[in-house]
Amino acid sequence: QVRLEESGGGLVQPGDSLKLTCTAIGLPSTTYVLGWFRQPPGKEREFVASISYNGRFFNYGESARSRFAISRDIAKNTVSVQMNNLRPEDTGVYFCAAGPGGTQSSGYKYWGQGTQVTVSS
């Protein structure tokens, strides 16, 4: 059974940093891209970042570029996103996803339950 388990969400103040981690269990393919998406309150789910199966190639959404950094520990089957200089507009539910890849939700076959990130003073 495939499971993606996110952790690390919480309430932080503007300018703070937060690291989210996702553990992937039972993926049927070792070549899947791992990605992060987020869904702000009342908005559509949007792409945050993704990383290739070997950890060598990255892609970032416009909002994440220059502030977020994605990484992957192949041995531990985890993917993390380090989020720096957080802003109130970064608030939302963050989802881990696995699949062939891309910047659209349709490119990912498996999804975690999500973890809440709230940026507020």
Report on this model:
With 121 residues, the chain is mainly β. 0% of the residues lie in helices and 49% in strands. It contains no helices and eleven strands. The chain has strands spanning 3-7, 10-12, 18-25, 33-39, 46-51, 58-60, 68-73, 78-83, 92-99, 110-111, 115-119. Strands 2, 4, 5, 6, 9, 10 and 11 form a seven-stranded mixed sheet that branches. A four-stranded antiparallel sheet has the order 1-3-8-7, with no helix packed on it. A hairpin with a 6-residue loop joins β5 and β6. The radius of gyration is 13 Å and the shape is globular.
Topology:
Blueprint: E1 3-7, E2 10-12, E3 18-25, E4 33-39, E5 46-51, E6 58-60, E7 68-73, E8 78-83, E9 92-99, E10 110-111, E11 115-119
Parallel strand pairs: 2-11
Antiparallel strand pairs: 1-3, 3-8, 4-5, 4-9, 5-6, 7-8, 9-10, 9-11
In short:
The mean pLDDT is 96. The protein has strands at residues 3-7, 10-12, 18-25, 33-39, 46-51, 58-60, 68-73, 78-83, 92-99, 110-111, 115-119.
List keywords for this structure.
121 residues, 11 strands, seven-stranded mixed beta sheet, mainly beta
Contiguous helical run count: 0
Shape: globular
Number of strands: 11
Tell me about the biggest sheet? 7 strands, mixed
Runs in which pLDDT lies below 50 for 5 or more consecutive residues are none
Structural class: mainly beta
Task: Give helix % range.
Answer: under 10%
Task: Give the CA-CA distance, first to last residue.
Answer: 40 Å
Average pLDDT across residues?
96
Radius of gyration: 13 Å
The succession of helices and strands, N to C, reads EEEEEEEEEEE
Strand content: over 45%
